[in-house]
Amino acid sequence: MDNEREERAVWLKHHGHNCCQSVIKALTEDDAAISDVEREVLHRAGAGFRTGMGGMEATCGALCGAVMVAGLKLPDTVVAGKVAKQMHERFVEISGASICKILKSRRPDGRFVCDCDDCVRHGVRVFGEIM
User: 0.90 cut: is pTM over it?
Assistant: First the structure.
């Protein structure tokens, strides 16, 4: 199921959603515990997290989306903070960084440290692993 969600998030990214919104939608669209109003609020809140919030200078939107959904589902802010830290650490482990500018930098072979499609996959993955 998680691999299907990862690919659904990538599909969403290529069909009108930014990285943050793609992760949010993929993680919430079939969750009966989340209302349509909550989904819409998260989607709209995720609109500002495109290109690493501030023109690639800040945290990857895919990670932000995963943390936002976790915060909605967790019982309190202390737990949410601990989970956010775990998600961040795991995202960095599998992606190479959490800052968009670094993720989009080029390695000596010309490839990105982590391209957007993989960042979106990783956002969904860390949510699934930690939540």
Answer: yes
